[in-house]
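Hi all, posting the design record for the shared folder.

TITLE: backbone redesign
STEP: 1 of 1
STRUCTURE INPUT:
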């Protein structure tokens, strides 16, 4: 069965017959890429500068992002967990500002049921959960609300996930996991049209695992919901190109186009404008 092409996110309905872009807005001091750039100049404890975060989000929307994904807990390899209160302090004021002043779907990148509830109350209409509803109460925070939900695969936890990733068949194992989590969500009352899945590039996977998944995304079956690709600036690009984080645009676009060709419907990226251009060229070629 071909993946569904409609995504519900609160009051919005996205036709995914053409791919859309999710812009990344990190509100963390230790994001592998850009979170610290949004820090307030206040000395001491890290605080998000709401105006900087809003300006970044506004630029992404202007460039064509349909979704802005706000994250308050770094999930880079080696990252440690933050408290729920710290995560709330980082993301809720940003979500409230974006919801007030931007016409865009706001996603919250979290696995905490508490953060999910508060983010929805603040205006978020999508949940991006790298732990795929592992937190007790997570599914109860979102079911019956028509809030979009991304279920991601991760082997292990961020602090240790890249120490020794191991699979017999990475495509089959990721597919089986995501299929089970989709079934769980639906059985718990989440509308299938609200669901998307993410293979979790870089989350408990070696370079070979990542590229095997990228090449074989169409084999993530029998998952009949749309797929997200999130490869932007990741180490799977840096290792191959021998480029620093801020110099990985070309490699990220190349991997994104491979993902689009293999069935991705949503692209999660730091670089919205360039990604939109790549999608436009891809779509013209695909329809020619």
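Okay, here is what came back for every position:
SEQUENCE:
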């Amino acid at each position: 069965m071909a993946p569904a092409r409609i995504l519900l996110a609160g009051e919005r309905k996205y036709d995914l017959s053409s791919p859309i872009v999710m812009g990344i807005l990190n509100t963390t001091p230790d994001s592998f890429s850009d979170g610290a750039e949004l820090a307030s100049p206040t000395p001491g404890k890290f605080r998000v500068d709401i105006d900087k975060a809003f300006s970044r989000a506004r630029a992404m929307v202007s460039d064509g992002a349909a979704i802005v994904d706000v994250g308050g807990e770094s999930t880079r390899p080696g990252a440690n967990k933050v408290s729920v209160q710290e995560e709330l302090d980082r993301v809720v004021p940003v979500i409230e500002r974006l919801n007030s002043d931007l016409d865009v779907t706001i996603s919250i990148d979290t696995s905490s049921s508490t953060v999910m509830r508060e983010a929805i109350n603040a205006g978020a209409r999508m949940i991006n959960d790298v732990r795929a509803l592992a937190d007790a109460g997570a599914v109860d925070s979102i079911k019956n609300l028509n809030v979009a939900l991304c279920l991601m695969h991760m082997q292990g936890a961020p602090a240790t996930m890249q120490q020794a990733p191991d699979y017999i068949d990475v495509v089959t194992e990721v597919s089986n996991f995501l299929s089970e989590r989709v079934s769980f969500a639906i059985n718990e009352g989440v509308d299938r049209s609200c669901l998307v899945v993410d293979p979790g590039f870089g989350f408990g996977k070696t370079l070979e695992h990542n590229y095997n998944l990228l090449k074989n995304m169409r084999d993530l079956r029998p998952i009949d919901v749309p797929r997200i690709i999130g490869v932007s600036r990741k180490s799977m690009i840096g290792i191959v190109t021998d480029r620093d984080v801020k110099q990985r645009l070309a490699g990220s676009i190349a991997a994104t186009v491979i993902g689009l060709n293999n069935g991705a419907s949503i692209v999660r990226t730091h670089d919205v404008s360039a990604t939109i251009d790549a999608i436009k060229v891809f779509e013209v070629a695909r329809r020619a």
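COMMENT: The first strand starts at residue 6 and ends at 9.
Let me know if anyone wants the other runs.
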